[in-house]
Amino acid sequence: xxxxxxxxxxxxxxxxxxxxxxxxxxxxxxxxxxxxxxxxxxxxxxxxxxxxxxxxxxxxxxxxxxxxxxxxxxxxxxxxxxxxxxxxxxxxxxxxxxxxxxxxxxxxxxxxxxxxxxxxxxxxxxxxxxxxxxxxxxxxxxxxxxxxxxxxxxxxxxxxxxxxxxxxxxxxxxxxxxxxxxxxxxxxxxxxxxxxxxxxxxxxxxxxxxxxxxxxxxxxxxxxxxxxxxxxxxxxxxxxxxxxxxxxxxxxxxxxxxxxxxxxxxxxxxxxxxxxxxxxxxxxxxxxxxxxxxxxxxxxxxxxxxxxxxxxxxxxxxxxxxxxxxxxxxxxxxxxxxxxxxxxxxxxxxxxxxxxxxxxxxxxxxxxxxxxxxxxxxxxxxxxxxxx
Amino acid sequence: xxxxxxxxxxxxxxxxxxxxxxxxxxxxxxxxxxxxxxxxxxxxxxxxxxxxxxxxxxxxxxxxxxxxxxxxxxxxxxxxxxxxxxxxxxxxxxxxxxxxxxxxxxxxxxxxxxxxxxxxxxxxxxxxxxxxxxxxxxxxxxxxxxxxxxxxxxxxxxxxxxxxxxxxxxxxxxxxxxxxxxxxxxxxxxxxxxxxxxxxxxxxxxxxxxxxxxxxxxxxxxxxx
Lengths: 388, 225
Fold this sequence. Notes:
Structural class of chain B: alpha/beta
Radius of gyration of chain A: 22 Å
Structural class of chain A: alpha+beta
Largest sheet of chain A: 3 strands, antiparallel
Number of helices of chain B: 4
Oligomer: heterodimer
Strand order of the largest sheet of chain B: 1-2-7-6-3
Distance between the termini of chain B: 75 Å
Helix content of chain B: 10-25%
Shape of chain A: globular
Shape of chain B: flat
Order of helices and strands of chain B: HEEHEEEEEEHEH
C-alpha cells in the first residue's frame, strides 16, 4: 500500500524557515567569493536579522571548467591525471575511484600487491586530509596558525612519501586500469611504516591540545546540527553523515578492493554538530592507522599490473558502469558510459563536496554569522571538486 | 537485494500502469537499469523509497545524458515490377531488389538515477527517465521532493543539458552564470568564437585562433572604410 505522493508535509525534508522577529531591517550580505574561510572561490548570499541567519544561498561555479566534457573529448587513460584536480587534497582517492569505475566497465582484475598499495595510499590520503581539514576548521574559528601547522607538519611527511613514490606531492596520477603505475621499494615501505608509527603520537598531541579546549567546545557544541533523517534524504556521505549517527561507510558496505580483509571500526557521532564532526575525523584518522598497520604488514610480493590490461588503444565494449569509493570527504562516484570508441560517451563525476553542500542552508538557519564559517569548515569542501 | 526482474514486478504490482522497462547493460559490470514512464515516475520513486523491503532511501547520483538523433541505414529487400525487354518483347517482370533505406531515430535527453539503501545496505538500482525530444519537450518530473539530494544535481543538469524538472523548488543555473544562454554539455554545443590569445596554440587550436584573428582584422578594416 503506497501513501499518496508527498503525503508528508510540504517541505518535510527541509529545515523549517526562520521567522524574523520584526525588529529592525533585514540585511543582505554576500560572504565571499574572496572570503578567506571559503577555501577557494565560493559565495554565500546571506540574509540576516541582526546576527541570525534567515536565508543562505550558496553560489559557486567560479572554478568551473567543464571537467566532464573535457573527459568526453579524451581517451580513458588521459582522464586519469585530470581526476587529480578534482579534490586536489586527496588525488590518490580520486585516481582509485575512476580506476574502479573503468575496471568495472571493462571487467579488469587487479593484482594483489596493487590492491594493497591502493589501500595504503588511500588511507594515507585520508589521514592527511582529515588532519588538515581539522586544522583548517580550527583556523576558521580564529586560532590562527598553530593547530594548522601541527596538522601540516604531519601532512608534509605523508606528502614526502607520495612524492618519492609517484613523483608529485599532490598531483599523483598514480593508478592505472588494472593496477598501479610504479612499484614500491622495500625502503619506501619501511619509511611508510615509520611515518605511520608516528601518527598516533601526533593524534594524541593534537587531541590533548584541542578536544577539551573551552573556547572550541563553546563554539562548536550544538552548532550546525544535522538530523540523521535529513542527512540520509539529502544524500550526505562521509564524516558529515556518520557524525549524525548513521552507520554508512562504503568501505564496509561495498567492500571494494580488499577492505574485507582489514579489521577496523566505523566511528559514529551522536549529536551531529560541528564538535562531533571534528572528533569523528580524529577517530577515523586513528582507524586509518589501524588499516595501514595491517596492510603494511601483509603486503605481498608480485606484479602491480594485470598483464592482460591494455594501456594504449584501450576501447571497452559498449555499456556503462558506476563505481564508487569512500573518499575522505564522502562518496566519490564515477559513472562512465562507453560506446565502444576510445573516449567515453559520457563521463560523470559524483563529487561528495557538491552534494554535501545541499544542506548548508539547513544547518545554518537560525545560527549566528560567525558560525556559518565554522559550519562550512566542518563540511570540508574543496572547490576543485564542487565546481569541476 | 532482489533481482532487477523482481523489483520490476514489485513496482508493477504496486503502481498500476507503471510501464517499467528493463534496459540491458552488456558490459561486464552488468548494472542493468529500469526505464520509467514520465507520468508514473514520481509514484514509482515514492514506492521505491517507502517500501519496507526495498527501502531505497539514498539517491546517490543523478546524471544527464544527451543522445543525438541516430541515422540508421538498413538494407531491405523489396519486390518491384520492372519493365524489361526479353527477346525483343517488353514484359512486366517481378524482381527482388536491394534497397538502402535511411530512417532517423529521434534523439532525447536522459536522466540516470543511482539509488542505494542506507537502511538495508544494498544497491545500486538504476532508474532512467527520457524526455520526448531534445528541443521543445524537455520536461521531466523532479525527484527533489522525494530525495533532497537531487536538488543541486538536477539544477546542474538543467544548467548543462537544459532538462526542465517540473516540481523542482529552485530551478536555476548552478555552475554557469545567470544570463548564460546555451547548455554546454549537449553534444551539439558550439563554442562561442571569443578566441583572443592562446600562448601555445597548435593544430586545431592554432587554426581557430587564425580564423578568429582574420575575422577581427576584417571587421576592423570594414569599420575603417
